[in-house]
Amino acid sequence: MAVEGIGARALRKEDKRFITGKGKYTDDMVLPGMGFAAFVRSPHAHARVKGIDASAALAMPGVDAVLTGDQLVGDGIGNIICGWMIHSKDGSPMKMGAWRALEPETVRFVGQAVAVVVADTQAQARDAADAVEVDYEELPAVVDPLSALEPGAPQLHPEAEGNLIFDWEIGDEAATNAAFDNASHVTRMEISNNRLVPNPMEPRAALADYNDAEEHHTLYTTSQNPHVARLVLSAFYNIAPEHKLRVIAPDVGGGFGSKIYIYPEEMVCLWASKRVGRPVKWVSDRTEAFLTDAHGRDHRSEAELALDADNKILGFRVKTVANLGAYMSLFSSSVPTYLYATLLSGQYNIPAIHANVKTVYTNTTPVDAYRGAGRPEATYLVERMMETAAREVGLSPAEFRRKNFVRSFPHQTPVIMCYDAGDYDVTLDAAMKTADYDGFPARKAEAASRGKLRGIGLSCYIEACGIAPSAAVGSLGAGVGLWESAEVRVNPVGTVEVLTGSHSHGQGHETTFAQLISERFGLDTDAVSIVHGDTDKVQFGMGTYGSRSGAVGMSAIVKALDKVESKAKKIAAHLMEAAEGDIQIEGGELKVAGTDKKLTFTEVALAAYTAHNLPEGMEPGLKEGAFYDPTNFTFPAGTYVCEVEIDPETGKTEIINFVAADDFGKVINPMIVEGQVHGGLVQGIGQALLENAAYDETGQLLTASYMDYTMPRADDVPSFSLSTHETLCPGNPLGMKGCGEAGAIGSPPAVINAITDALGSNDLTMPASPEKVWALAQSGMKQAAE
Amino acid sequence: MYETNYHRAGSIAEAAELMAKAEDGKLLGGGQTLLPTMKQRLAAPSDLVDVTKIGEMNGICEDGDGVAIGAATTHAEVAASDLVKQKIPGLASLAGGIGDPAVRHMGTLGGSIANNDPAADYPAALVALGAIVKTNKRDLAAEEFFSGMFETALDEDEIVMSVRFPGASASAYSKYPNPASRYAMAGVFVAKAGDGSVKVAVTGAGQDGVFRMPEMEAALASNFAPDAVAGIAPDADGLLSDIHGSAAYRANLVTVMAKRAVAAA
């Protein structure tokens, strides 16, 4: 390869193995004597488990064991936890119902596991799982979050009366109400955010191996954060103490949040391996993934925006009901609270904000963080309100936004966040110019001449990444710190291994992280390996989610590199009898400034390990570690412009053009950043136009396969026009903000604003299916005719 | 998937014999529906008898003013056939729009019609063109062959050998795909015969599978133009309704697709 530092479009080092089929995923792992697990799952959304008869299954060929919830509880395996404590506005803690990995008493969503079969082959395990007879007494179910809060609704958990988990608020209610008293215009909307299924390409999988001689467990699993998994499995689920539990997350084929959590299946494999005395593998099939991977979004909101006579925003009032499904997943409580309502100020000066969030249990799959996690819900709300308010007061959407932009930094919003840097005019101007916003009326007229409806929509998003300052999130209820660790090991021959707590499952860390070392020491990126995903190799780490691997993970690497550089310079200065301050690193060499004296990086590394001639008192070796705890969130922001053309006869929406102008701070590898934006945009456009997890009234998931759940395909999206505009984040050494989620956060409102512009009707929910759009187009044409 | 026995038949007689011997045999004609169904453990045939390698069931040849297509001919072969493109362009374009390239290179004409998925494309072409389905026992007119959702007139041991499509002076197919599955939500095949008569067949929308639109046919016989069918829609009562589209929406799609098919014919 080459020396490819910060800003280089380095090709991905990992792609050779992925493209040639040499990746090593959990399902590729084969252990001698391995058995297979198959889960017995509830066909009912809500039912009492009256009995489980495994006798027929146990008599089937190859079957080792059928294990149930009673045995799991009897063995002292802990309940599944939620790691973020939220208190209701009355001060009471959130109401958490018990979630057991195998449910012995009451199932609360279709697909919940009640037993597991272990057999010699996967087919035998599945056949036997079908033969386990479970006697259910069906109970009434509730799937709609608003219905779940009504008196008389079916009750899910004894701990949560009326299915209410918490009733939380943020902001100054009195000041916000006063702002509305003084408003000259108020925009009101009811806005829902549709439920999504994450659908990473690789489904979840686990291979657990218990060694009884050493009382040691190894778990290969599809995790975005193997150390967090080990911590939770050890401290809360009582699988084994941490030093007796190794968690390996090898190549992982996408996560989007859904592989943050420690699910029942992975934990049951660990427990079952010890119980049956053989390694146990489980690989989710796609239907299991639809039924049991944590879903995303599912909010119902009422929002009101108060404006003064000059169309400046005075206040923003929001009431949201968030559906958390049947149980509280690991970060579920933080998503509709501190990851959502803290972003309700958008890119705007809003003097007063008040938000009330109620979270509810329903007989549906648990909901947790999914690409964006709270910020897409906030952005969709804010940006639909902004576009609607602009239309109502007769300003152009851009002018109305400009009137209210935050322009001085740091900017303290009324909802905790303190924006550190940004330039929202720059991204708005760039996006509008690229989209030829001014030329839109002519394009609309041309489309009309062909019987088509054109619309254009804006979205000026801001989000919070780089999660997170540990003390700050601790004070808000987080159960862990959200720093990151790194270790830089220079080998005696001058090659470098970087051990990181971040986990790559598609993000390209092996390339971008290597670019940091290439930049710092002038080394070829091929001289660098990135080691991650194994708790036996990396000491600790918090993993990858919330677009944190750059801003937090790479900052930890930079801190460790600072230490390595300092020691290398001391050694070089000593060897070349120069002052440490005169040593410069350039092109893989350590030079004495102003002289021709120099040593290669390899010579210095070797000297550190031979230790024949080191400065007095210096330890041998060249290896340094660091923990980096961010001082603030980071705030990526930008403007997206979407232009659509609608066929009023069928309701089909075609995205004609999509422009993204993003500020991610410092960009390490523009190619990888563009890939992240492409993927995010497609997921956001998928949410806006196509994707929806639909349940019937009895709690059956109607969209449990790709026959009914509409994933975006290549022909659903245009070729995107992207640009980045850098304001450096002052809070971390590289000035990075994060780029992993922005596309999914910023794009849905741009799409819906464009469609509602085309239709002249604002009464549209996501996904904007052809039928919904057709119905609005028809009623619009009828009105026009009258 | 449950375990099953795979057999590759070399002749129709051998296929029939294998089926007769099987406890619960299924003919495999490309497997684009059957195999996913088996993978989901929703079907568990004891034996699969693959008929796609039987020579006499493969290929396309001229047949009077039309074409005869072997039941094991893939959609891709039909789509690429110069003969089909010349004689019945609407049929070639229909075959070229089924599923995706992988489906088109595995899926076969016989497999598709024997399954009679109410959202499959081919039934519309067979009915509108007045095709004859030739089996190892008899000849069946298309409208006789398709007898309801996932139902055909085929006996348990009957094998589709080929389909004879009469020529048409004009033909076209227009469909609106289900956004998720890409099956037809409404697919309309319009065919004008040499004598000037017109048939319009609709797939994807009907509760009982493919159906004809006599009112459209009459209108088009006197005026073969999109406007002739613009005001004609099927009764929504007999149409499918699901999370992707209500019966009323599908009724609208039938009209729109009929207009577009006529325009393209």
Automatic annotation (TrEMBL), chain A:
<keyword id="KW-0500">Molybdenum</keyword>
<dbReference type="InterPro" id="IPR037165">
    <property type="entry name" value="AldOxase/xan_DH_Mopterin-bd_sf"/>
</dbReference>
<dbReference type="Pfam" id="PF20256">
    <property type="entry name" value="MoCoBD_2"/>
</dbReference>
<dbReference type="Pfam" id="PF02738">
    <property type="entry name" value="MoCoBD_1"/>
</dbReference>
<dbReference type="InterPro" id="IPR036856">
    <property type="entry name" value="Ald_Oxase/Xan_DH_a/b_sf"/>
</dbReference>
<dbReference type="InterPro" id="IPR046867">
    <property type="entry name" value="AldOxase/xan_DH_MoCoBD2"/>
</dbReference>
<dbReference type="Pfam" id="PF01315">
    <property type="entry name" value="Ald_Xan_dh_C"/>
</dbReference>
<dbReference type="InterPro" id="IPR016208">
    <property type="entry name" value="Ald_Oxase/xanthine_DH-like"/>
</dbReference>
<dbReference type="InterPro" id="IPR000674">
    <property type="entry name" value="Ald_Oxase/Xan_DH_a/b"/>
</dbReference>
<feature type="domain" description="Aldehyde oxidase/xanthine dehydrogenase a/b hammerhead">
    <location>
        <begin position="20"/>
        <end position="140"/>
    </location>
</feature>
<protein>
    <submittedName>
        <fullName>Xanthine dehydrogenase, molybdenum binding subunit apoprotein</fullName>
    </submittedName>
</protein>
<keyword id="KW-0560">Oxidoreductase</keyword>
<dbReference type="InterPro" id="IPR008274">
    <property type="entry name" value="AldOxase/xan_DH_MoCoBD1"/>
</dbReference>
TrEMBL record, chain B:
<dbReference type="Pfam" id="PF00941">
    <property type="entry name" value="FAD_binding_5"/>
</dbReference>
<dbReference type="InterPro" id="IPR016166">
    <property type="entry name" value="FAD-bd_PCMH"/>
</dbReference>
<dbReference type="InterPro" id="IPR005107">
    <property type="entry name" value="CO_DH_flav_C"/>
</dbReference>
<protein>
    <submittedName>
        <fullName>Carbon-monoxide dehydrogenase medium subunit</fullName>
    </submittedName>
</protein>
<dbReference type="InterPro" id="IPR036683">
    <property type="entry name" value="CO_DH_flav_C_dom_sf"/>
</dbReference>
<dbReference type="InterPro" id="IPR036318">
    <property type="entry name" value="FAD-bd_PCMH-like_sf"/>
</dbReference>
<dbReference type="InterPro" id="IPR051312">
    <property type="entry name" value="Diverse_Substr_Oxidored"/>
</dbReference>
<keyword id="KW-0560">Oxidoreductase</keyword>
<dbReference type="InterPro" id="IPR002346">
    <property type="entry name" value="Mopterin_DH_FAD-bd"/>
</dbReference>
<dbReference type="InterPro" id="IPR016167">
    <property type="entry name" value="FAD-bd_PCMH_sub1"/>
</dbReference>
<keyword id="KW-0274">FAD</keyword>
<keyword id="KW-0285">Flavoprotein</keyword>
<dbReference type="InterPro" id="IPR016169">
    <property type="entry name" value="FAD-bd_PCMH_sub2"/>
</dbReference>
<feature type="domain" description="FAD-binding PCMH-type">
    <location>
        <begin position="1"/>
        <end position="170"/>
    </location>
</feature>
